[in-house]
């Protein structure tokens, strides 16, 4: 920390859940105070690798902007912008696509998994890791907070920086992964699975917009096991351990400290304690989110300003790329 440029992106998929918050966004807020230059992008170009309803997508983009601001992203400290409004992303992506071999993309685990699930993914789903590389390199970013599942994609960005530099002369610095102490939050309904917005079960996820009543109900219903004591062992007791993880993260205490507070409580009583910690942490976020969502014009103006600032950084880099390529 202290020098360098941070870049990260999140897809506009509606209001985040507490897994997104604890696994990514809370860290984003910390990083904006640690690095002199920070960019956070709502990556709508990535989101259309899956079918999207246009009006829903427009709403989701604004909801994600409101959510990021409510979680503490400060537009004075981080440039918050919408990827599609900086067309340089798509152009650099095309140029990098022409430096990427088919086998290099075919071997990526996400493609293997997603194309198998969908039987046939679109071409965009195949090349989106190159767009990710373009997102990062366009700002000559040096530090990229990523989840474990994205490490191979950052490897590709590193390779493409090297390939471009070798072919056209030094331009891009090597981007490094920032793997913060990642807190994996599990589904409240099935603690063997991660908490995910694609989980159809209504009790599985807690959104940052959930009311205190919603939160208390979901935690009360959270699946645990038949042992009433509170202990921490994610392998043998994933349900109760997930509650301990959530409690510790929300109250900003260690797992040991959370277990100390759980001493003498059965899981039922402990759930009340966990609810209180979650409600206390999320209440100001939910209130701010509610306030921001009610003022669409303000959100649009904030995003427009972020888009302009991002584009000011991107344009000279892309101009240099075009020149080197021979355009
Ligand atoms: P989802 O799995 O709900 O579709 P995304 O894949 O859009 O979420 O992830 C957005 C960010 O949130 C990523 O940085 C990802 O690593 C993080 N994240 C998603 N789910 C969790 C989880 N259950 N626990 C911790 N972090 C998570
Ligand atoms: Na996902």
Spatial gap, N to C terminus: 37 Å
Mean pLDDT: 95
Domains (count): 2
Give, in order, the helices and strands.
EHEHHEHHHHEHEHHHHH
What is the count of β-strands?
Answer: 5
Strand order, biggest sheet?
1-2-3
Largest sheet: 3 strands, parallel
Number of helices: 13
CATH superfamily of the largest domain: HUPs
- The percentage of residues in β strands lies in 5-15%
Q: List the ions, cofactors and other small molecules found in this model.
A: adenosine-5'-diphosphate, sodium ion
Give the % helix: 55-70%
CATH second-level architecture of the largest domain: 3-Layer(aba) Sandwich
Poorly predicted parts? none
Which radius of gyration do the C-alpha atoms yield? 21 Å
Examine the coordinates and then state which fold CATH places here, giving the name of the CATH topology of the largest domain.
Answer: Rossmann fold
Structural class based on helices, strands and sheet pairing: mainly alpha
Instruction: Categorize the overall geometry.
Output: globular
Quickly name the level 1 CATH class of the largest domain: Alpha Beta
């Amino acid at each position: 920390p202290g020098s360098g440029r941070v870049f990260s992106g999140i897809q506009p998929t509606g209001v985040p859940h507490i897994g997104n918050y604890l696994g990514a966004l809370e860290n984003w807020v910390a990083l904006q105070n640690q690095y002199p230059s920070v960019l956070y992008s709502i990556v709508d170009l990535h989101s259309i690798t899956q079918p999207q309803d246009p009006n829903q997508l427009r709403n989701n983009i604004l909801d994600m902007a409101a959510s990021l601001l409510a979680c503490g992203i400060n537009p004075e400290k981080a440039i918050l912008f919408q990827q599609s409004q900086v067309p340089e992303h798509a152009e650099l992506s095309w140029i990098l696509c022409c430096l990427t071999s088919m086998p290099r993309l075919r071997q990526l685990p996400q493609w293997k998994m997603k194309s198998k699930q969908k039987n046939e993914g679109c071409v965009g789903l195949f090349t989106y890791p190159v767009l990710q590389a373009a997102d990062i390199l366009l700002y000559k970013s040096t530090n990229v907070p990523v989840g474990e599942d994205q490490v191979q994609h950052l490897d590709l960005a590193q390779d493409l920086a090297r390939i471009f530099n070798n072919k056209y002369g030094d331009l891009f610095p090597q981007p490094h992964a920032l793997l913060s102490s990642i807190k994996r939050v599990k589904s409240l309904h099935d603690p063997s699975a991660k908490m995910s917005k694609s989980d159809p079960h209504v009790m599985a996820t807690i959104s940052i917009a959930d009311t205190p009543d919603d939160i208390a109900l979901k935690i009360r219903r959270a699946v645990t096991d038949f042992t009433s004591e509170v202990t921490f062992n994610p392998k043998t007791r994933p349900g109760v351990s997930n509650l301990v993880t959530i409690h510790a993260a929300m109250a900003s205490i260690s797992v040991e400290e959370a277990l100390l507070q759980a001493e003498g409580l059965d899981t039922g009583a402990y759930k009340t304690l966990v609810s209180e910690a979650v409600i206390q942490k999320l209440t100001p976020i939910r209130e701010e989110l509610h306030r921001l969502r009610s003022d669409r014009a303000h959100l649009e103006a904030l995003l427009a300003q972020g888009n302009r600032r991002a584009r000011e950084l991107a344009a000279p880099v892309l101009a240099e790329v075009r020149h080197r390529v021979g355009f």
